């Protein structure tokens, strides 16, 4: 049970890191005189960092388990998050958001840990929860 709670708490921290700059983007846009396209480029860089590391995290979890890589990635992603105030151009914003995006890739490790925990004890519940969450996400994004 401790692994399950550590997993969701680490994932909460990852989302805190990943989305910390989102409410500040209007102010960053004004301060750095950025265009809407430059803001979108920084958003794409953030997602690109996440997607890149998600492909790497699967084999890392198979080799080392989920706990150690998750801790390393969260520690690494917290550094650029703390350096957000040092951004002074659109390029530095995009590079910073690319590395902050690594925090979002901890979804793979969180899923790995919860799969191992839930599947061992509650395999039927696991399939119900996973299918329900995917269906609800599909419904949410299809109406936007």
Question: What name goes with the CATH superfamily?
Answer: MFS general substrate transporter like domains
For the largest beta-sheet, the strand count, sense and barrel status come to: none
Decide which structural class fits the backbone.
mainly alpha
How much helicity do the residues have? over 70%
Low-confidence stretches: 136-144
Count the helices. How many?
7
CATH topology: Growth Hormone, Chain: A
Mean pLDDT: 80
> What is the count of distinct domains?
1
What's the CATH architecture? Up-down Bundle
> How many β-strand runs?
0
What does this structure look like?
By secondary structure, the chain is mainly α. The protein has one domain: MFS general substrate transporter like domains (Growth Hormone, Chain: A), CATH 1.20.1250. 80% of the residues lie in helices and 0% in strands. It is built from seven helices and no strands. The protein has helices at residues 2-18, 25-31, 36-64, 67-82, 90-100, 107-121, 123-142. Helix 3 (36-64) crosses helix 6, helix 4 runs antiparallel to helix 5 and helix 6 (107-121) runs antiparallel to helix 7 (123-142). It is elongated and about 55 Å long. The chain starts with a helix and ends with a helix. Residues 136-144 have low confidence and may be disordered.
